[in-house]
Amino acid sequence: MDKSQDVLEKILSRLDSMDSRFDNMEVNVTEGLDKMGARLDKMDTRFDKMETRFDKMDARFDSLESKVDEIKQELNSVREQVIKNSEGIADLNVKVDEVKEDISSFQENMEFLNDQQVEIKKDVWKLKRRA
């Protein structure tokens, strides 16, 4: 029985050793899982922060987009006003040309009238000399 007792003790010793190893492995696995859980929590927190930043950036882009739309509207209204002003200037140029023509015609008429006045004065002088 000594042999069987020795074998049994060896088996029990090995089982105790294996049990101790399993306990150590369980502790190591638990610690590893805890560390991984902590890392995952940190990663989750970082992802939440990144998501918040992306939300802020998205809001900023929306704000910029609305500002760009406002600027586009202002540019369109300025463009329309410039077109209207250009049309008005073209109309004024036509009117200026008409006024220039009228002035030129008036000057020609004045010259003609001056020439006629000179002729009339000459005729008056001639008549005065004859009289």
From TrEMBL:
Key words, A-Z: Coiled coil
SUPFAM superfamilies linked: Tropomyosin
Superkingdom of origin organism: Bacteria
Coiled coil: 54-116
Name of the featured protein: t-SNARE coiled-coil homology domain-containing protein
